Amino acid sequence: MNVNFSGTGVALITPFRKQGTIDFSTLEAVVESFVEAKVDYIVVLGTTSEAATMNSKEKAAIIDNVLEIVDNRLPIVLGMGGNNTLEVVDKIKQTDFTGISGILSVSPYYNKPQQRGIYLHYKNIAEVSPVPVIMYNVPGRTASNMTAETTLQIAEEFSNIVAIKEASGNMSQVMQIIRNKPEHFSVISGDDALTLPMMAAGAIGVISVIANAFPKQMTEMVNYCLKHDFESALPLHYKLLPLMNAIFEEGNPAGVKAAMEAKGLISNHLRLPLVKVSKPLYTKISGLIDELENSK
Q1: Active-site residue 136, yes or no?
Q2: pTM passes above 0.90
């Protein structure tokens, strides 16, 4: 089983029915589409899953269902983050990691900790995690940036922290990490639109949102990048780019769920406080999908 988290990881959405319950039959179809497209791993209960709106029983049911559907055909990474360090540590201690290949843990949000606080947060996670840990830096959601210096210090000191999902959008920061990181540590793109340039700079892949709707195309593009065949990757990148940008115009996962409904893959339902994209954006996304699917 691949546990170096290179290639295409998919940040799995959660399909809901109109009444708000989880649509497990559609979830199975979505996951099977990832297996068929030969993505490299699936991230369960990340931000894109709307995990923040689920209770503990629903989260456990999602994990159990995905593990059953995948049946060891793909590695599974479990989203386990928070802004209460002790609670995250306790959750890790209580979790059965059978069938789980790693943790994706977001840098603490809302509290706006100092860099030392971020360091100590991940130190505590590293000391209890029985599986490899991928850190996640996404200042647009957390309201604080995890600096390259902090990332590199953690990477040097904890061998079971194996990667960072970098979604700062700061290519200078990304390259500083790649240039100075230890051998066991990797950088993963957290931004679909920056995946190609980040991989050209030395990142090993992406944890992708758009791959929910276009797993085959995104995986093909990333695989070319892994082979350093950027001449073949570029046309795929630019075909996907307008849609990559559009699905984030009114937030994630509202945009990708709109795209998936337009493709007939899911019913477009979200849980409050998230709502569907506006009608003009839905029309734009649908048009971009038609252009993409009709292009040669």
Answers
A1: yes
A2: yes
